[in-house]
Amino acid sequence: MNDAVVLPVSCENETRLVYRKVILRLLPYLFLAYALNTIDRLNVSFAKLRMAEDIALSDAAYGIGAGIFYLGYILFEVPSNMYLQRIGARATLARIMVLWGLVTVGTAFVTSANQLIVARFLLGIAEAGFFPGVILYLTYWFPAALRARITAVFLMAAMIAGIISGPLAGWIMTHLDGWMGLRDWQVLFVVEGIPAMLLGVFGWFWLVDKPAQARWLSEREKQLLASALEQARGADTEHASLAQVLRNPRVYLAGLVFFCLYSGSNTVSYWMPTLIRGFGIHDLKTIGLVASLPYLLALIGMYLLARSSDKHLERRWHVAVTVLVSAGCFALLGPVQGHLLFSLTLMTLGAAAALAALSLFWTIPPALLSPSAAAVGIAVISCIGGIAGVVSQIVVGAIKTATGSLYMAFDVIAVVLVVGALVLLLAIPARQLLERPRS
Fold this sequence. Notes:
The chain is mostly helical. It contains 16 helices and no strands.
């Protein structure tokens, strides 16, 4: 006999209206926060085009700087997510945004490659826990049947930021050069760091940790939300320790998949302006505009993937096929070098596929792990993927310095992406991700 509670149609309609209210309250803020987060990560890839001469920055040193960010992130990510459970998402996210804004502004005043490396390490520490914290925060408000679309909307912020960041960086560096006596790349860091601090302060007053604390929900709305979440989550309310999570092989399998996927999307994010300049395009505004194309295509892809995945309640093949498309495009970059149109097409499609796959991937860990293990498990998975940020950037920088070309580096990334798709399909059975549609 089925013991599940079947809500009357009127209750379903009320619950739908409550979710709409929650979405309108939380998602615009989280969307803007993640957009600023992405912009403040990507701006170093555009600043590099000008700052390299000023601070004697080689490609290898840039790779270390881009990668060491993730070392700081990894070291503090799990503690940050565990601390979030103690002090709440509001305090955690506000603190993170204020700190990363301060470090971004401070990066404008580095005078050597070593100082840039230190600044990037500090930025990683400041940002630690932001992304997995938001992913966890969403599980407090939305059931699995809605989470792919909600996560996709949240991650679309990164795509919007990618579309905006290139033209914005080109405009700032072209038109604000000399503002307050600063060089173009220095102005970029200052102008793009201040909004994060302001949004962090605002978040302290705007966010609430859980539905029960939301003054903007009525008691009836809180009850409907709690009922819907309880049905979706089941009875697992115990807290899993870090040791228990670390003994769970599912965490490492998901982490390995994320490592492979992130190697591709992360490399694209930090080396795209340099790759575009290698195609023979040197104008900053043009580079910025071209760099926005993959994010525009990824934005469309994320929506279509999420819609299809939620409709069929299928995650693995949606992610794997998208990743394999990206791998194929990256592998073909070398053979078509010298052909501007083909190179731009492959770069755009490959980067878009790598970026779009990430949003859908993040619907897998909450389904793979029990609710009690999700908080720490998501942070551990994110940490494992973060290692890719360290390794891939250093490897790409070293290959670029040794060969003078990025094509061999993208061949390596293509192989890593294929490995990720195979691990996902072969090592994570579909039965472990079974989800039921919401009544």
